[in-house]
Amino acid sequence: MTKVAIIGGSMAGISAGVALHHLGVDVAIYERAGDELASRGAGIATHDGLYEALTGAGVHLRDEMGIRSMGRLMLDSHGAEVERVDVPQVMTSWGLMYRFLRAQIPDHCYHNNYVLCDLVQDADRIVARFQNGEEATADWLIGADGTRSTVRRLVAPEVAINYCGYFGWRGLIDENLIAAPVLGELAHRMTLCLATGGHWLGYLVAGLNDDLRPGHRLYNWGWYRTADEAKLKDHLTDATGLYHEQGIPHSLIRPELVAAMQAEARAFLGPQPQTVVGATHQPFIQGMFDLGCEHLVYDRVCLVGDAAITARPHIGLGVSKAIEDATSLAIALAAQNPGAALAQWEKSRLRYGLAALAFSRDLGSYIGPTPVTPEHRAKAEYHQRPEIFLNANAPIDPQRWLKL
Ligand SMILES: Cc1cc2nc3c(=O)[nH]c(=O)nc-3n(C[C@H](O)[C@H](O)[C@H](O)COP(=O)(O)OP(=O)(O)OC[C@H]3O[C@@H](n4cnc5c(N)ncnc54)[C@H](O)[C@@H]3O)c2cc1C
Description:
By secondary structure, this protein is an alpha+beta fold. Helices cover about 35% and strands about 25% of the residues. Helix 1 runs parallel beside helix 10 and helix 10 packs antiparallel against helix 11.
């Protein structure tokens, strides 16, 4: 029986595991984190392609995968409505998606606290080595270990991770902390607000225990801020001077940085986003990085999801891309002739992933460093037009926007 080892047990890793398990392949997932993984992350905008990818992997969807949003609302910096569109969309959360997917894979296939540190492959097999001293031998290995993938670093060390020139402040708060009139205005639509140095957006997501009932939900918001690398580094440095390159724990963000961000919110955002930001006692920071590999198959190793191609989050496609990469790879690996099937898989997923990366760069073109070329300026202006801005961020119809 074919044996597959998967490194990383998040969206891409679990979906590959579920699809391979359904195809009768012997599969084992190795995840660096312990149980805390379920509490990670925040809002995820969904679209039909994500659900098609899940059902394609043999997964039965929940009745409700998240909170139903009626559409989008764009506010100006004084809180006045600029434009609204009716595009119903389900807004889910990373935690809900993770728990939903995790429940699809038997416990004996999923191993927490396994940190990959090395790989050895020959013509017949591949061996993964973990920090705890254990080893796993397989026919194929899937690298589903995210943007800072160790698998990718081992097989394609030349691939660079690019800092986009901005980071995101994010918050996830109890909806009851938001003043009722403001929540009433924001509850039914994803709200976006163009502001100096980057846009703000927010929407409701499931609450504790994936509760979708009004009064029990969380409000998820993000605010992109232009920042050079020195500023990012400063924001990832705690009060003792320690720099957390891979992400600073929320509780270690220096209070003066939070206070400065709150002051900027009062200066640059309308009253509704200000209220939400002001009600957030422990916001967190995510540096924005992107990358694209030129290949997805390296002998017995295949890369999927963010490990292969990380697009910027504006496109709202990361989860569906990860699931589609993973489930189509499972089918290729289970084929009679995996070599030919893998070549076809690599070609089609590279095309899709690189189109997603290019489009996400266009969407973020106005946030990072000031545009200097006429082409960059034109792109930045185009993507700030209200009708484009409202519909192209986390689009419900990605195929319309991707240059495939
Ligand atoms: C601000 C923001 C907003 C976003 N919004 C959306 C959205 O609205 N819609 C959407 O679809 N996507 C969104 N995304 C993107 C989405 O979250 C990612 O694309 C998706 O999580 C990628 O899944 P993945 O499984 O490839 O990687 P990840 O989710 O990064 O998982 C990688 C896993 O590998 C594990 N790992 C890492 N190294 C090792 C190792 N050495 N050994 C073992 N395990 C390891 C990690 O612990 C982790 O669990 C957003 C992202 C950001 C940053």
